[in-house]
Amino acid sequence: MNKRTFIKFSGLGLATIALPSMAQRKAGSTSSAGSQLTDITGSTTPISATERQQRIKRAQQLMRNHGIAAVVLEPGAAMDYFSGIQWWRSERLTALVIPQEGEVGVVTPFFEEPSVRETLAVGRDVRVWQEHENPFVQLKGILKDRGITKGKLAFESTVRYFVLNGLMSVLPDMQHVSADPVTLGCRMFKSAHELQLMHKANEITLKAYEHVYSQLQEGMSQQDVKLLMSNAQQALGGHDIWGLTLFNEASAYPHGTKQQQNIREGSVVLMDCGCAVHGYQSDISRTFVFGEASKKQKMVWEQVKKGQQIAFETAQLGTAAGKVDDAVRSYYAKLGYGPEYSLPGLSHRTGHGIGMEGHESVNFVHGETTPLQPGMCLSNEPGIYIPGEFGVRLEDCIYMGENGANWFTEPPVSLENPIGKLAPLSV
């Protein structure tokens, strides 16, 4: 379960309270301001079937390089990435097979076939199974018809055990291996089109922050502000909207708490929000102070701003991703935080990969040796958390270009001007 799903369904940050909110009760001011927001996604286009075919060709080349006969994927981002199929996982198997040579194949329950075909963008070979049948026999048939009866069969790391075990039981002459060299070898490096979609998603989230910041009022609950942010992103054209809103002492919990908090004079308001445009994600965090900020709040905010800049400057082409995290922790340690993950300080990694999923490889985390390369996209979010007091997190995503790191959104310049701005896209 990723951060977005966890936040959406756990109730942390009061994400699921259904009581009438202050934002709903206020006399029209927020709703009239929200109505001024309009969809800004009209210039974007979804990933085409041609692009998916090119991805499959790239995957097949990587399979040849690694001696992999075929890749098996379950529903999720990778299946969507290659085939366009947008489905979910259940006890009934739906799977995509990418052979080293030839056309992809799909196995799905008989009664689900029409629905699965609605989003299938590439390939015509869809094989169905009835409720009393073994779906792995159908998968075996797809492989056999492509001349695959032995060799390495690759599974993505998220494939469930019953799928791996069931398929391997009918393919005794094959060996299972990781599909990461193939799936990550494709998905980790974003195309110009993918970057454009992510740029637009970040634009939506940033504009929504600007709107919400102007609407903050004393007495608002976390749910009030969360609702404002959700409605704003939706009005601007965002989909798969998610958000975390934390006030006061609760802001020291990076991913939330069940504590109920309201805005008061001097409140820290920490928000971590995002959306998707044609399946590609944004992820931006902002920290505000309602009213007059204390000297300590100002100091910590500036320290986090500096930490974020250190991460950006360290993220050079060829640099091991873990070195970015190390550089930030070294700076924080000099300020007396930590050491390492200890609090007060930075209790989580400096950043994570992002694309179709909010959290992807590779990460800005200690020990990560993968070198930064063009096309990689990552969050930059080195917060500082002080238990019992407050936390500060500033998060903007970056993408690696031919000349180094670039911002999707530029960080805010000060606590008095805490939004930031959209950076031009360099592709």
From TrEMBL:
Q: Which residues form the Creatinase N-terminal domain?
A: 55-188
Extent of Polar residues compositional bias:
28-51
Coiled-coil positions: none
Q: Which residues form the Peptidase M24 domain?
A: 197-400
- TM ranges: none
Residues covered by region (Disordered): 28-52
Q: Which GO terms describe its molecular function?
A: aminopeptidase activity
Specify whether Thylakoid is a keyword of the entry: no
Keyword tags? Aminopeptidase, Hydrolase, Protease, Signal
Q: Where is the signal peptide?
A: 1-23
- Protein name listed in UniProt: Aminopeptidase P family protein
